[in-house]
Amino acid sequence: MKTKYLENTEKDIKTAAEIIKNGGLVAFPTETVYGLGGDAENAASAEKIYAAKGRPSDNPLIIHLSKASDAEKYAYTNELFYMLADRFCPGPLTMILPKKDVIPKAVTGGLDTVAVRIPSHPVARAFIEACGTAIAAPSANISGSPSPTSAAHVKADLDGRIDAIIDGGICGVGLESTIIKFKDGRAVILRPGAVTEEMLSAVVPVRRDLALFDKPDENTRPEAPGMKYRHYAPKVPVTMLKGSHADVVSFMKEALGKDNATGVICYESDRDEIKGRNVSYLPDDPEGQAGNLFAFLRGYDESDAPCVYSVTPPRTGIGLAVYNRLTKAAGFSVRHVGLNIPVIGLTGQSGSGKSTVAAIFARRGAFVADCDEVYHSLLKRGSPLTKELKKRFPSAVKNGKVDRPALAEIVFSDKAKLDELNKVTHGVILDEVRKRLRSAEKEYKFAVVDASQLFESGFDTECTAVIGVCADDETRIKRITERDGISREKALSRTKNQHNGDFFRVYCDMTVENTGTLDKLEESVDKIIKKYIG
Ligand code: TXA
Ligand code: MG
Q1: Which of 271, 313, 398, 491 has the most CB atoms around its CB within 10 Å?
Q2: Is 416 exposed, middle or buried (0-12, 13-18, 19+ CB in 10 A)?
């Protein structure tokens, strides 16, 4: 088949719509990635899509609409759907709903549910409207390879296999939409994307599908069947490096010294230090990283790189989606550099029982570094950190000693001051933690770093796994009042600015629900050790 190349003109959009009406396939741009579209009401079109992509037919397609109310025709909507649609649609959010009969099962991989998305890209919208029907579309790549973010990427994969490609330039977001389903009045994230946990949870309660970061085993079918083992991957092996940035940089330089063709994905800010013919520089901001990742991964297919080493991007905001796609591209292959033992990061809200969990890990033979204790130890009278804090927060340092409640008071209501404090403290705390880990690596089989600010400090990028300890609000408040001898009001105000439990349930590799019984906690810790330490 000869693939037609179309532009964003009225005439070409009309041609594209005709192709769809006749049961053909058209690749089109969206704000996330290019989609491979067919008529969502036509089972034969769906079959053609699977064939063109080489995709297993049990992996369902997303249907694309031009407005949220069109969903009524194809699915059974609910209140949460409209609450989220009002806020985020059109945009990079896909919601799963029970399907109506007009959607053939060929589109949904045999499921009784259908994924619904309303893209914001003007060309996608014009195209869908011209078709006058829902457009079923997966990403327009050969199954398993990185999703296409330009018409050239689509051409490389699907030229001659589909009827037409509408060229709409480069996709702005660069990673596929956030996918959620609804369960028990919550949105459950099945695939992270540009509509982040923070954004969703401002509207509805949010959880993450538990298997999101897991290497799926052979027997369980992931909730979103497309989130399988190796995906988004170039043909050469990708390994994610974990460790301090300095250690990662020196590992990359050494690898390039041995073989200048080594593929390396580092940061723009490393440009002066890391040089090689197959080096890709991720922008330092997470949006830029999302926008470039797939193009970089695709680039390695045309290079002579024997393998690719990548940095581990921090998981904040859309960074979670970048992290998720890289993990899959690497087929979960990670390598620790600079340290010879695995590190489990432990985080969660105050009063959730982090220290109790850390103590269980210690009894199971872990070396434990407690960041709060490290911070205390760095605040000795006249220490370098104390001097630095004196410069920035003079009223909180008296007689060469930091008055922690006074410091807390200053930063509590002033975000800029809090950021400044964190900038100063995180770096020195982590340096001390790394020093302690290094001195423990010979004697211990693994280490645990207890850090309430684990994600904020960026230490998540150095951990084998990040575990969140969660407990319901009442239990936590009760614990804080008893432990610290403070009033309920004071305890409440202290936790007001912290992430809620669901933040940790979305961002951590695994969470421990601390309901109060020690037996249960010990059981959870043993599970974690078995899974991540072996
Ligand atoms: O940004 C996007 O979502 C892009 C553009 C083209 O819209 N589309 C996209 O489609 O990424 P695709 O097919 O590559 O990924 C769709 C994912 C797959 O992981 C699939 O398993 C999941 O959505 N999915 C689709 N329908 C589902 C359903 N009914 N239940 C659970 N997961 C579903
Ligand atoms: Mg895809």
Answers
A1: 313
A2: exposed
